[in-house]
């Protein structure tokens, strides 16, 4: 028992020192002792071990007022590499990244109508493409995938569009690649990315809403992901926001995805054009087709029809987000994906709807912001997932 406690303390101290080095400019051993409250001897032992593992390097002498200058150490981003995979879109994407999440190589493969084992073979093929390009010890493979995922076992409970049910993705990848594998829901992984790289401080609470072909969200409570008892916490895509609304793929009607996903937005744009046949929006859609790019262009030119569509989009997102923010009493809501590209107009509409639906007091503290992480958010999150599980970073 005493031995176990001693080991746990040792690991805790090592994590504390590594985190401090990871988040700082080059530091001396004395700086690390000051920042962590650990003794100089403990820090020296830990740094010796981290040097042995190649996780940190010595970068030369630092400044000193008197005496021998101390040797500074820093985290070595090239010490490990990771393979990150995003199975969320119409193409599977992967990246080889360094231990600070910088992308070194990327690869992608269109999914087309592949399902079940065929779709899984595509995942293997994608990982193998990057596997041949690895130039440092591989820390592991991280995967963000649609559907509820048991993150401890790495089992995808159900991903309808991929035809996967109770798929042991972790087991299948481990058997093939023999490195640590970590799998989680793609919106949950995106929330981890926002937590690690979104500039919200070390232990933020936030809800990350990811909208594209589908809509999901991830909940971070004081720096930790809340996955839910059935691993589908934050599943807002199928919250009903319009009773008696359009039928949804889940069998219900009026779900958020029927009014605020990209396909729903483009359908709404088509309907708006048909009922306003003389409008600039109708003419542009007739000439160039209903795509997100065309709609964004009309929106940026101040087209009143396009602006009204985005107002509706923000309002619908706000209805669902209000429930989450109100119940959890989380102040920061971060929007990523296609709606975020419409900028402040969408965020303002969303915030206004949320404030109208939650307690005045909660609304005052609330902020709705766009993620700055861009389209690679799931890849970055898969990196954060592996770093968290393997090194207790970032
Ligand atoms: Zn639904």
SSE layout and pairing:
Elements: H1 2-22, H2 29-36, H3 40-53, E1 56-61, E2 71-75, E3 81-86, E4 91-98, E5 103-110, H4 116-131, E6 138-145, E7 149-150, E8 155-159, E9 164-168, H5 169-177, E10 181-185, H6 186-197, E11 206-211, E12 215-221, E13 224-226, H7 257-260, H8 262-275, H9 280-288, H10 292-300, H11 304-328, E14 332-337, H12 344-357, H13 360-365, E15 367-370, H14 377-391
Parallel strand pairs: 3-6, 6-10, 11-14, 14-15
Antiparallel strand pairs: 1-2, 3-4, 4-5, 7-8, 8-9, 11-12, 12-13
Helix pairs in contact: 1-2, 1-3, 2-3, 6-14, 8-9, 8-11, 10-11, 11-12
The site of zinc ion has 6 residues, from loops.
Largest pleated sheet: 5 strands, mixed
Major sheet: arrangement of strands: 5-4-3-6-10
Provide the gyration radius in Å. 24 Å
User: In angstroms, what separates the terminal alpha carbons?
Assistant: 30 Å
Strand content: 15-25%
**What's the rounded overall pLDDT mean?**
94
Please work out how many helical segments DSSP would assign: 14
Order of helices and strands: HHHEEEEEHEEEEHEHEEEHHHHHEHHEH
| Percentage of residues assigned to helices | 40-55%
Name its key features.
394 residues, alpha/beta, 5-stranded mixed β-sheet, 14 helices, 15 strands, 45% helix, globular, binds zinc ion
């Amino acid at each position: 028992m005493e031995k176990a406690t001693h080991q746990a303390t040792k690991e805790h101290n090592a994590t504390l020192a590594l985190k401090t080095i990871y988040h700082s400019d080059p530091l001396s051993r004395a700086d690390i002792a000051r920042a962590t409250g650990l003794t100089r001897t403990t820090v020296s032992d830990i740094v010796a071990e981290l040097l042995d593992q190649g996780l940190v390097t010595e970068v030369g002498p630092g400044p000193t007022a008197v005496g021998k200058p101390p040797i500074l150490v820093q985290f070595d981003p090239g010490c490990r590499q990771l393979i990150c995979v995003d199975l969320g879109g119409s193409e599977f994407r992967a990246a080889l990244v360094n231990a600070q999440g910088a992308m070194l190589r990327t690869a992608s493969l269109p999914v087309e109508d592949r399902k079940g084992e065929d779709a899984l073979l595509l995942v293997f093929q994608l990982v193998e493409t990057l596997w041949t390009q690895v130039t440092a010890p591989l820390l592991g493979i991280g995967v963000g995938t649609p559907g509820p995922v048991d993150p401890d076992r790495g089992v995808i409970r159900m991903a309808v569009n991929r035809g996967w049910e109770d798929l042991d993705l972790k087991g299948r990848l481990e058997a093939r690649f023999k490195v640590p594998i970590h799998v989680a829901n793609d919106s949950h992984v995106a929330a981890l990315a926002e937590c690690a790289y979104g500039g919200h401080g070390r232990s933020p609470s936030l809800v990350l809403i990811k909208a594209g072909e589908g809509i999901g969200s991830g909940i971070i409570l004081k720096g930790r992901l809340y996955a839910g008892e059935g691993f589908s916490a934050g599943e807002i895509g199928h919250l009903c926001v319009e009773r008696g609304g359009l039928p949804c793929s889940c069998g219900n009607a009026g779900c958020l995805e029927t009014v605020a996903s990209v396909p729903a937005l483009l359908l709404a744009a088509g309907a708006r054009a048909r009922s306003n046949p003389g409008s600039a929006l109708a003419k542009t859609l007739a000439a160039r087709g209903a795509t997100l790019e065309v709609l964004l262009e009309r929106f940026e030119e101040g087209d009143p029809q396009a602006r009204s569509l985005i107002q509706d989009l923000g309002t619908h997102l706000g209805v669902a987000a209000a429930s989450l923010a109100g119940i959890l009493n989380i102040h920061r809501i971060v929007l990523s994906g296609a709606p975020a590209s419409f900028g402040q107009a969408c965020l303002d509409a969303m915030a206004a709807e949320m404030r109208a639906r939650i307690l005045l007091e909660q609304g005052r503290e609330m902020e709705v912001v766009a993620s700055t992480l861009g389209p690679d958010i799931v890849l970055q999150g898969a990196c954060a997932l592996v770093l968290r599980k393997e090194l207790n970073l970032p």
